[in-house]
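[step 3/7] inverse_fold.run input=structure_tokens len=277
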């Protein structure tokens, strides 16, 4: 049987009253009439997502799900019943999350970060908000400064909990977050700051070390150009003013303008920063 929960590129084998039958040369699956493209040819390749329909039969769709096998996504609960919760994942049939896979009881209308996995006992695609069981506790191969893919898990008083490369849990400290619109479920890039002896990982949303100075210097330079060569910011500016304008800390800002000053690209005066030339 074709693997459930992933996209397949299959060949159109034959047309019937109920839809197109697609094949990989070994297994066939139905693409129902409502998903059949207006123009197609027998023998043509088509990319589809395969999952189980309401009658637990493998079926193909051209709809794009919000989550695929082994991935994480922030999904809304359509309804709940005595068996569990049913989440909107962009397909006709909702994604089932049984009670035993809920980190806390799910409520209709609310969104939760879930992982999509294949239940080996039932051969069904199932969601789980108990995400820790799908993450590696011992990080390996990560180095300081390495660029990584992040999924925002949840936000606490300490900072932002993230999932790194779909494998590890990490933390971005609150005092190092300068973006205003970060929400659970967002996907973004980040950079490893430190892998601690206990396996915990500190993460930054911006480059760390010398490379970050160059990157942030460019941000200041771009903002100067967009502001007709002048920014009303100095070493004495309030950190919140710097964060509002440049989305960086005061410490990072001072390093950035120091770099630009040494390169003779800016002048620093009492009322602000001026672009040279």
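[step 3/7] decode complete -> sequence:
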């Amino acid at each position: 049987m074709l693997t459930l929960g992933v996209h397949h590129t299959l060949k159109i084998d034959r047309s019937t009253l109920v839809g197109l039958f697609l094949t990989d040369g070994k297994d066939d699956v139905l693409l129902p009439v409502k998903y059949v493209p207006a123009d197609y040819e027998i023998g043509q390749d088509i990319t589809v997502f395969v999952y189980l329909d309401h009658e637990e039969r493998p079926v193909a769709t051209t709809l794009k799900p919000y989550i695929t096998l082994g991935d994480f996504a922030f999904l809304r609960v359509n309804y709940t019943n005595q068996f569990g919760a049913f989440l909107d994942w962009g397909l006709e049939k909702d994604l089932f999350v049984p009670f035993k896979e809920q980190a806390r009881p799910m409520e209709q209308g609310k969104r939760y970060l879930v992982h999509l996995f294949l239940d080996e006992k039932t051969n069904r695609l199932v969601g789980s908000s108990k995400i820790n069981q799908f993450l590696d506790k011992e990080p390996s191969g990560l180095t300081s400064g390495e660029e990584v893919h992040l999924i925002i898990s949840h936000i606490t008083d300490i900072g932002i909990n993230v999932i790194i490369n779909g494998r590890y849990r990490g933390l971005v400290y609150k005092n190092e977050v300068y973006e205003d619109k970060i929400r659970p479920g967002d996907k973004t890039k980040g950079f490893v700051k430190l892998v601690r002896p206990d396996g915990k990982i500190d993460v930054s949303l911006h480059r760390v070390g010398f490379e970050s100075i160059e990157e942030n210097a460019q941000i200041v330079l771009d903002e100067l150009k967009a502001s007709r060569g002048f920014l009303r910011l100095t070493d004495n500016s309030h950190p919140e003013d710097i964060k509002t304008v440049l989305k960086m800390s005061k410490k990072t800002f001072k390093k950035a303008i120091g770099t630009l000053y040494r390169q003779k690209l800016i002048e620093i005066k009492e009322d602000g920063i001026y672009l040279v030339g």
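[step 4/7] annotate
The domain at 7-61 is CATH 2.40.50.140 (OB fold (Dihydrolipoamide Acetyltransferase, E2P)).
Helices lie at 210-226, 239-246, 250-262.
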